[in-house]
Specification:
Layout lengths: L5 E4 L12 H9 L2 E4 L2 H10 L6 E3 L5 H13 L4 E4 L12 H9 L3 E4 L6 H8 L6 E5 L7 H8 L5 E6 L4 H12 L4 E6 L7 E6 H8 L8 E5 L4 H18 L1
Parallel strand pairs: 1-4, 1-5, 2-3, 2-4, 6-7
Antiparallel strand pairs: 7-10, 8-9, 8-10
Helix pairs in contact: 3-4, 7-8
Catalytic activity: cytidine(1402) in 16S rRNA + S-adenosyl-L-methionine = 2'-O-methylcytidine(1402) in 16S rRNA + S-adenosyl-L-homocysteine + H(+)
Subcellular location: Cytoplasm
EC number: 2.1.1.198
Length: 245
């Protein structure tokens, strides 16, 4: 019986093609199959590096179904490389489910190091980097208010992803739940021509983006709550919960 193949998770540039690693190019060229979050988005990247392997779509809407077929492919001894539209697969992108399924069948999984949007945003922020809390995207509706309250007392640096059309609303909500004076650092278009990082209080950053372009993907870094503020907010939310009862 032939050995099983290997599942590779291959990071791709979040904007600048020069951030693609030599190893990532080699793995993609050697893979028997490439899985892409959106084949149309990945096509220019693969063409640029002259990667001509078979490419199939693997995204949040089909990952449960397609994972079964991919596992069969891996068990036949074929190597599969997974890429997302940008950055490292499984970080706020498809990948986790497939990795978990592969490990159930003792299939080797290897993740290459590479581009991830929150790392440069965190380092650029000037906030403590020794301990941080990556939240990705907050819930859109159900559970959003609860999550704000839970994170209000988080003393580590917080990292969130946000879309352009929700940025101002999110900053407004932060002012409500975390305080208008909380320090934030918002980065957009990382590694691209119009890369920008805006730092200041929640109010200051919101005022800035009310009159500047809301384009690209945003990474928000928020200073952790001060110990004194933690005690105050804990008491406040405890009182709120008692009032609701």
């Amino acid at each position: 019986m032939s050995e099983t193949g290997k599942l590779y998770l291959v990071p791709t540039p979040i904007g600048n093609l020069e951030d693609m690693t030599f190893r990532a190019i080699r793995i993609l060229k050697e893979a028997d199959l490439i899985l892409a979050e959106d084949t149309r988005t990945s096509a220019p990247l693969l063409k640029h590096f002259e990667i001509q392997n078979k490419v199939f779509a693997h995204h949040q809407h089909n990952e449960h179904q397609s994972s079964n077929e991919i596992i069969k492919f891996l068990l036949m001894g074929q190597n599969v490389a997974l890429i997302s539209d940008a950055g490292t697969p499984a970080i706020s992108d498809p990948g986790f489910f497939l990795v978990r399924e592969a490990l159930k069948f003792n299939i080797a999984v290897e993740c290459l190091p590479g581009a991830t949007a929150f790392v440069p945003a965190l380092v650029n922020s000037g906030f403590p980097t020794d301990k941080f809390c990556f939240e990705g995207f907050l819930p859109l509706k159900k559970g959003r208010q609860t999550r704000y309250k839970q994170l209000a007392t988080e003393e580590r640096t917080l990292i969130l992803y946000e879309s352009p059309h929700r940025l101002l609303k999110t900053l407004e909500e932060m002012a409500t739940y975390w305080g208008a004076d909380r320090q934030v650092s918002v980065s957009r278009e990382l590694t691209k021509m119009f890369e920008e990082t805006v730092r200041g209080t929640v109010t200051e950053v919101k005022t800035y983006f009310e009159t500047h372009p809301l384009k690209g993907e945003f990474v928000m870094c928020i200073a952790g709550a001060a110990p004194v503020e933690v005690d105050k907010k804990k008491r406040k939310y405890q009182d709120d919960d008692e009032d609701e009862d």
